[in-house]
Design goal:
With about 300 residues, the protein is of the alpha/beta class. It has one domain: Vaccinia Virus protein VP39 (Rossmann fold, 3-Layer(aba) Sandwich), CATH 3.40.50.150. Helix content is about 35%, strand content about 20%. The strands form two sheets. The chain has a seven-stranded mixed β-sheet, with helices on both faces. The chain has a four-stranded antiparallel β-sheet with strand order 1-2-3-9, with no helix packed on it. Strand 4, helix 4 and strand 5 form a beta-alpha-beta unit. Helix 3 packs across helix 4 and helix 7 packs across helix 9. The longest helix has 20 residues. The protein is globular, with a radius of gyration of 19 Å. The C terminus is likely disordered.
Amino acid sequence: MADMHEKNRPYLDSCPVGCPSPLVSTDIILAEGLLLRCTGCGQLVSQCSKQRYHQCMAEFDNPRGTLPGPDSIARYARRARKCLAGITRSLERSPQEIRLLDVGCSTGAFITVAHRMGFAAEGVEPAPQAARSAQAAGLRVHQGLLEEIAFPDQAFDAVTLFEVIEHVRETLPLFRECHRILRPDGLLVAGTGNAESWAASFMASRWEYFQIERHGGHVSFFNPFSIRLLAERSGFQIDSLKTRSMRFYEKGDVPPIMYRLAKIASELLNLPSQLFGKGHDMLVFLRKKGDSSPIFHKGAKAAGARGQI
């Protein structure tokens, strides 16, 4: 009985950004219950149970991992190259001079693009089957959670976290571990959804980032303010925070003609959404300045990619 009660408890019961503030109910109703909001930073939190969380996270443990499909691989590669070019500009180094770690790398799609551009790139992936597929392809991928690998201090010039932090129970320890393994002036690049986007405001419970059935393990939803607090508390400063994309409906949610009209309206709002920081997707470049060290709380443990066991 006690085990069942533990499994049915919410996976998250405090702010992942480290706020001591209480969580209060919002009016956004999901299958897991009312979405919660941190009264300190506005972070949104799912009431997904621990059991449900681990069930839906199992989808990532397969030989293909999150490898883009044939219809989207070219688009993915373009976006990856653009991000990697941004890293080289920010660090003012050539790719050959940059050691990069992709945390939550799955089967290694981002690492593959980085290698082709000349980066010394490797990854960390907790899902065993996905990690083995990456290793079989000749990529240097460590299987396990980030803190389990125990990289040396200041081992990397850049660390990337794409579609990871929305899965993590305690994001602050994860960022602090990234800070530890980065060299002075190194970059942490994080990509996630923007819970204060116009898309999230319009779609509410229909917003795709909230849909745990479509995106397994999404339990924590960031906004620009909560990201800035997270950076400050983990010893980073934000070099840039950009958002992009607008949408009103997902394909199949409405009749085709309404979807096409809504897509035209979305495209017209893409630029304004970027200018006002209200885009659907958020990409953040954070810099470790000098030899600064964040203040660690007693007992803090570094979190791994896509959550903690």
